[in-house]
Structure formats: structure tokens, C-alpha cells
Amino acid sequence: MRLKLYWQIFIGLALGVVFGFASRMLGFESFVIEKVAVLGDIFLRGLRMIIVPLIVSSIISGVTSIGTPESFGRLSLKTFAYYVSTSLLAILTGLILVNIIQPGVGAQLGFHETPPELSANVEKIGDTLLGIIPTNPLQAMVEGKMLPIIFFSLLFGFFITRAPEPYNQKLTDFFQGVFEVMMQMTHFIIRFTPVGVFALMGKIVAQTGFDVFIPLGKYMITVAGGLVIHAVFTLPMLLYTVGRINPAAHAQAMAPALLTAFSTASSSATLPLTIDSVENNAGVSNKISSFVLPLGATINMDGTALYECVAAMFIAQVYGIELSFFQQFIVVITALLASIGAAGVPMAGLVMITIILGAVGLPLEGIGLILAVDRILDMMRTSVNVWSDSCGTAIIARSEGETDLKVL
Fold first, then answer.
1. Quick one: which of 163, 167, 294, 332 is 20 to 30 A from 214 by CA?
2. How many Cβ atoms from other residues are within 10 Å of residue 249's Cβ?
3. 281 close to 62: Cβ distance less than 8 angstroms
4. What CATH number should be reported for the domain whose range is 5-399?
């Protein structure tokens, strides 16, 4: 029987730690750092290779499948407003916590070296906001500039829905086909994640020893704390103040879906149970749940967006890089937009962090650090994603008069 991918990644991680520590004990750490680490570099190059076409096709196909706001009217606008607002609140929660706790500050890991691309970003940071609008979209794609790529893709997808037939459908089918091909390539590259994690973690431990695990523990506490604040305070407050719904009763109604989300770490796999719980336990009509929940599984990733923001800041801190206010603003905006574009992608968290690190010029090698503790945090953030979807569905249903109050 073939092991599940997360078990393979965990084994790769464990072997990387053991191999890296053994190299320090036996004196061949230079071999690990210079030779074995090449496997990790190959894995990271594979990720870089697929990012631009994957994000472009994902966003365009996602936008065209949703259609224009006029297609759905008031319900569509309420849904988008909720998803964007809660994702932004989650990201800001994570940003505040990571600046207060600073889990990566003071980590003596030997990474304190500013990459040249970050230095370039610092010099041009005043032009960053203007640079979101690309003068040449193809050049932005070649250079891997994520914010202009995401901005252009959102606009392009939107205006495909405005194009007359038959061009509308032909373009929609074309980009959906490109997205399916890129998904296959993504699945192929992700199969090598255990090898990449082994090499990256082996290199890190060979360089630093077990000192790396102290900041990792602080990082886990920071992410978990942010997720708890968003799930226990922010979303229930919205439920109570905006939807006039008892948060405790709604949580009880959603318990089966939340437990499934935690155990599977998959919003998509949990979707049927989420719909069932929302309709039969929370009293939401099928008219609302059948639109809001599938859309939420596609574009709403509160927990993941929070996690990615904290991860990017943590990697910057570990490398001894102080991000300016504007660079942190770019992290926030990129996390928000990437959460829309990468939601339907396998291992979306890995794809999103690659996008965010690229947007502010941080080294992708830092991914090896956060992958070490990704599984447990993945389970937590998926539960928050599903919880946010259900809260939004309940709030919108209440505002539309589509809630059976007798069920709650």
C-alpha cells in the first residue's frame, strides 16, 4: 500500500534532519550543503517553473467560471464582500502577531544575508503600487512579477466574460484546458516534495544543527494563535453582530464538517459534509449554500492566507531581513490575491508561499523551514477555512431571509 503524500513528506523531513545532524557529527556537512542540497534546488526550480502559467490559468479560469457580478446580483456581491473582508482580517491578524512575537528574530541560523533581488526591491519600493499595473504583461510574466501578473489575470478573466459569443466560450475552454494541464504538471512536481524536503532540511540542519527548532516552535505558536483568534473571536463576532446568529449553536451545528476538515486537511473533500451540516444542522436553504459554499472552496482561504503571511514574515526574520511597511503591505495584498488564485491548486499553501516570497524578493530556500511543521498547521488552517465558509453562508442566508430558525 502506497503511503499518503503527507506521510512521505514527514519521512523525508525526518530523514533530512537525521542526515543533516549526522553530517555535522561526522564532519561531512560541506558535502550535504554543496551536493545533496542540489536536489532541493531542483525541486524549487520546478516550483518556479510552474508558478506563472499555473496562477494565470487558475485565476482566469476561476473568474470565467464565476461570471460577472451581474450574473448573480446581490447574492454575488455579498459573497465576495464577505470573503475578501474575512481574508483581509485574517491576514492582518497574522501580521500583527508575527510583528509582536517575532518568532524568527535572533535565530542564529547563519542565513543573515540580504538577497540581491530584495535590495533592488528596497530601492524601488516607492514604485511598487504603481507597478501593480503592468505596462507589459508578458514582460511581467517573464520576470515573475506576481502582483502585476495577478492583477492582469483578474482583469483578463473578467473581460472574457464580457466578450461576445463564440469567443467567450472558446477562451473560457482554452484557459480551462491550460489550467488542467498545469494541474497535471503540479501533481507531478509535488510527487517529489519528499525528496525536496529531505534535501532542504538536510542542508538547514547541516548548517545550523538543532537550533532551527526553537524559532520553528515560536512560529507554530504564532500561526496557531492567529488561527485561534480568527476562529474564536473574529468570525463569531461577525456571526453575532452582522448575522444575529448564536456562534456556539452554529459551531455545534458545524462540528461534523469541522472535525472532517481537521482530519483530512482538505476543504474540497469536506465540501459535501459542509453543505449537509449547513443545510440540515444550521437551517440554511439550498439556494444559498449551493452557491456560497462551492465558491468559498474556490476563493476563500482565511486560514491559509493568515498562515502564508506569517510564514513570509518568519522567513524574512530568520534571514535577518527587516521588511518595510510597504513591503509588509505587499505581503498582505499578495496573500489576499494569491488566496483567490491558488485555492483550487493541490498543496495550495506551498504554491501561495512561493508567490509571496517572490513578490517581495525573499529566498525560496526558506520554504524548507516551514514545510517541517506544515502538516499540523495545514489541518488547523483548513478547519478555519471551512469554518469561515460556513459563517459566511449563515450570515448571507440570514440577510436574504433564507434561514430556517427552527433548525438552530
1. 332
2. 14
3. no
4. 1.10.3860
